[in-house]
Amino acid sequence: MEAKTYYNDDADLKYLSDKTVAIIGYGSQGHAHALNLKESGVDVVVGLRKGSSSREEAQNEGLEVLSTAEAAKKGDIVMVLIPDQFQAEVYKNEIQPHLSDGNVLAFAHGFNIHFGQIEPPSNVDIFMVAPKSPGHLVRRVYTKGSGVPCLIAIEQDYTGTAKNTALAYAKGLGGTRAGVLETTFEEETETDLFGEQAVLCGGVSELVKQGFEVLTEAGYQPEIAYFECLHELKLIVDLMYEGGIEGMYYSVSDTAEYGGLTRGPRIIDEVTKKRMEAILSEVQDSTFADEWIEENKNGIPKLKALRSDLDNHKIEKVGKQLRSMMNWLEEDKTAEAAE
Ligand code: NAD
Ligand code: MG
Ligand code: MG
Ligand code: MG
Ligand code: MG
Ligand code: MG
User: Fold this and answer.
1) Nearest-angstrom CA–CA distance, 302 and 300
2) CB 169 within 8 A of CB 139
3) Cβ–Cβ contacts within 10 Å for residue 156, how many?
4) Is the CB of residue 49 less than 8 Å from the CB of residue 26?
5) CA of 285 to the centre of ligand 6 (A)
6) Could you tell which of 28, 127, 336 is best to mutate to test the pocket of ligand 1, judged by most ligand atoms within 8 Å of the CB?
7) Rounded to an integer, what distance in angstroms lies between the CA atom of residue 93 and that of residue 70?
C-alpha cells in the first residue's frame, strides 16, 4: 500500500483566505509555520505565554503576538506547537475555552490526540500537518523557493472541509512543493515513537556507546574510538540519506562493504528484531505513553538520572574535547537542531 501524495495543484490557499491562523509556541516548528504562512499571504497571530523570551523575536519579524488565550480566541485555526508534554495543560486552560463551532484544532504530532490527553469537542475539525524535518529546515528551504515533505492526517472532519484546509495549510508551509503524504494520527504517532526509540535515538546511540566501550576496554585510545564509532557516523548517515543503504555501500570501500554486509547481521539479528517488536507493542498498547505521562507528572526524575549517567560516560567527556577542536561544528549545530 502506497501513501496518497498531494502536490501544489491539489491544494488551494483559498481555504485559508478568510481565516486567522493562531500559532501557539514560537520554537523550532512555531517560528517556521508562522513565517512561512505569513509569507504565503495567510493572516497569522502568535500565541505565547507571559514572559516568553520569544516575544521580541516574533515581533521583530512583524508578527502579531498575543497571549495563548487571546490567540486561541482570535484564531479560526489553532496550531499547537509547544512541546508535547505541556500541550494537554495549556489546551485545557487556554485553548479549549476559546474554540468555537467550526474552528480547527491542528497539531504537528499526534501524541496528545492519539493517547487521549487532549479531548476536543465534536464541533471542531482536528488535523495534523507534520513537516518531516526540524523547523529550521522548514523555514530555510521555504525561503529558497522549495519545501520539505509533510504528513497530513484528518482526525475529525466537522466542517466537511478539514482536508482542504489541511492541504492549504501544508501549501502555505511550502510542503506541497515537495509532496504531502496522507497518514492517520495513529500511524504517525506510533511510527514516530517506534522510530526514535528503536532506531534513530535509542538504537543508534546504544550501538555507538557499546562500540566505543568495546574498543576502549580492549585498550584502544578513547579519542580514536570516538572517531571510529561516533564522529564518522555522520558521513555514513549522510550517504544513506542521499542514496539509501545501497548508495552508502557504493561509496565506502569494498572492504567496508564486505565487512559490513557479513558482520552487521551478527550484531543486529533476529533476537534484536524480536526486542524491536516488543518495543513496538509497548508503543501500540500505550505502555510507553502511560509511563512517559507519569514520569512528567513526577517531575521527570528518571529522565534526569539518565541524563546525568550519560553526561558521566567517557564517550561524552572525550567527545567534548574533540569537538572543541572542530570549530566549524558550531555553525552546523544551529542550522540543524534535531527533533
Ligand atoms: P520547541 O521545544 O522547539 O518549542 C516550543 C515552544 O513552545 C517554545 O519555544 C516556547 O515558545 C513554547 N513553550 C514552551 N513551554 C511552554 C509552555 N509550558 N506553555 C506555553 N508555551 C510554551 O517545540 P517543537 O520542537 O517546535 O515542537 C512543537 C511540536 O511540533 C510538537 O508537537 C512536536 O512533536 C512537533 N514536531 C517537531 C519537530 C521538530 O523537528 N522539532 C518536527 C515535527 C513535529
Ligand atoms: Mg519523528
Ligand atoms: Mg518524535
Ligand atoms: Mg574508519
Ligand atoms: Mg575504514
Ligand atoms: Mg494502535
Assistant:
1) 6
2) no
3) 18
4) no
5) 7
6) 28
7) 12
* Three-class secondary structure assignment of the chain: CCCCEECHHHCCHHHHCCCEEEEECCCHHHHHHHHHHHHCCCEEEEEECCCCCCHHHHHHCCCEEEEHHHHHHHCCEEEECCCHHHHHHHHHHHHHHHCCCCCEEEECCCHHHHCCCCCCCCCCEEEEEEECCCHHHHHHHHHCCCCCCEEEEEEECCCCCHHHHHHHHHHHHCHHHHCEEECCHHHHHHHHHHHHHHHHCHHHHHHHHHHHHHHHHCCCCHHHHHHHHHHCHHHHHHHHHHHHHHHHHHHCCHHHHHHHHHHHHHHCCHHHHHHHHHHHHHHHCCHHHHHHHHHHHCCCHHHHHHHHHHHCCHHHHHHHHHHHCCCCHHHHHHHCCCC
Q: Are 63 and 38 in contact (CB under 8 A)?
A: yes
Query: Does the predicted interface ipTM exceed a cut of 0.90?
Result: yes
Contacts 24+ apart (CB under 8 A), 158-164: 158/102, 158/122, 158/123, 158/124, 158/125, 159/102, 159/104, 159/125, 161/15, 161/125, 162/104, 162/125, 162/126, 162/127, 163/127, 164/11, 164/12, 164/15
Give distance in angstroms: CA of 28 to centre of ligand 1.
Answer: 6
Instruction: Measure 228 CA to ligand 5 centroid, in angstroms.
Output: 8
Q: What is the pLDDT of residues 102-159, one digit of tens each?
A: 999 999 999 999 999 999 999 999 999 999 999 999 999 999 999 999 999 999 999 9
Percent of the chain with pLDDT over 70: 97
d(CA 236, CA 260) in angstroms, rounded, equals: 12
Answer yes or no: 231 catalytic: no
What the block records as the C-alpha cell of 181 is 503524504
Question: Of the listed 33, 109, 231, 313, which one is catalytic?
Answer: 109
Considering just the CA atoms, what is the radius of gyration of the chain in Å? 22
Phi and psi based region of residue 179 (left: phi greater than 0; alpha: psi -120 to 50; beta: remaining) = left
